[in-house]
Amino acid sequence: MKVGIVGCGGIARAHLGAYKELGAQVAVVFDVVPAAAEAMAKDIGAKVAASVEEAAATPGLEAVSICTPPAVHCDNSLPFLKAGIPVLCEKPLEVSVASARKLAAAVKKTGTPFMTAYCHRFHPAVIKLKELLAADVLGRPLLMRNIFGGYVDISKNHRANPKLSGGGTMVDNGSHSSDLFRFLVGDPTHVSAVTANIMQDIPVEDIGLMHLQVGDKALGEIVATLSLPVCGNWIELYCSKGTAVISYWNEGHADLSYKLAGTKERVTVDCSGLPQRFPGQMAHFLECAEKKCQPATTVEDGLKATKILCAAYKSAQTGRRVKLSL
Questions:
Q1: What's the predicted TM-score (pTM) here?
Q2: Which positions of the chain have pLDDT values less than 70?
């Protein structure tokens, strides 16, 4: 399949690697920094487009990845949607609800396949946990706790620029967390949040804490940071019949395990045999692009996460819990 990449920074390299693994040909690239596009094109023998519109007009182009900063996701997606070229757009969908709605409206109008890149839904342990929930092994989700952390200096990239990113780590890591909460627990009805700068001197937060509530049925606690040098990445899901834990590459811990009420032993779930999240996500996208159908993670999923995140920032600014209408 002949694909394109718009935005040639770090995350674009992950898309490129997955496309290569799946045998897709990256035929055209574009970046507002020509040197970045030229460097990627040189590595793979791709054409460098002079504009997004020129990239969208590439003969025979069958799909595209949008890997730019969030503030221009809508603008960069529109030419491809109008041309009927399926789009895989990085998260978060946009920096405002208005821009996200504009993008969702364009997808609805054109009918072009559009996938929001929530790759964690394709993480093998998340897939297996979703299967356990569907089979009612664990019962009803009651509480989800999640931390995505570690340390990354973001002072010199777009994530430290609120005009481009829409915020700091809460909109970055927290975008995945918000989607996972919806995927595993349900649509939240309320959100409250606090943010801080604990290590990095940047104009956006380097840590955010969100509390999500699904009426009187379930709660969520999410920590999103890039300023905890020694920090595991975890999902804990407490349910009416048992508790499951997903460990992201934490030494000495299984990828997924669970313990049922009234039992003594934890059960380790075999997550081997499934592709890792990026190849899994890209394979699903390319299949949907070929079949001209909407992917599992839709533009509406991206819009709902944007609503949650914008409300979380409102809560952090006002000190008040915010009611959601998803």
A1: 0.96
A2: none
CATH code of the domain containing 155: 3.30.360.10
The per-residue pLDDT for 279 is 94
| Whole-number Å distance between alpha carbons of 108 and 125 | 32
On whether the CB atoms of residues 148 and 233 are closer than 8 A, the answer is yes
Cβ proximity of 79 and 20 under 8 Å:
no
* Distance separating alpha carbons of residues 135 and 151, to the nearest angstrom: 37
Q: Is-contact 87 62, C-beta < 8 A?
A: no
Whether residues 132 and 106 share a domain: the answer is no
> Are residues 100 and 139 both part of a single domain?
no
Q: Is 252 left (phi over 0), alpha (psi -120 to 50) or beta?
A: left
- In CATH, what number is assigned to the domain containing residue 33? 3.40.50.720
User: In this structure, are 113 and 261 located in the same domain?
Assistant: no
- Please enumerate in sequence order all residues whose Cβ is within 8 A of that of 11, keeping only pairs 6 or more positions apart, or say none: 67, 90
Instruction: Give me the sign of the Cα torsion angle 127, 132, 134, 135.
Output: positive
* pLDDT for position 250: 82
Q: Are 298 and 116 in contact (CB under 8 A)?
A: yes
* Spatial distance between the Cα atoms of 175 and 187, rounded to a whole number of angstroms: 14
Cis ω for the linkage preceding 124 (within 30 of 0):
no
Residue 233: per-residue pLDDT = 94
pLDDT in tens, 247-258: 998 888 999 999
**Do 316 and 174 share a structural domain?**
yes
Q: Which residue has the tokens 């956006």?
A: 204
Residue 297 tokens, joined = 């993670």
Name the maximum alpha-carbon separation found in the chain: 63
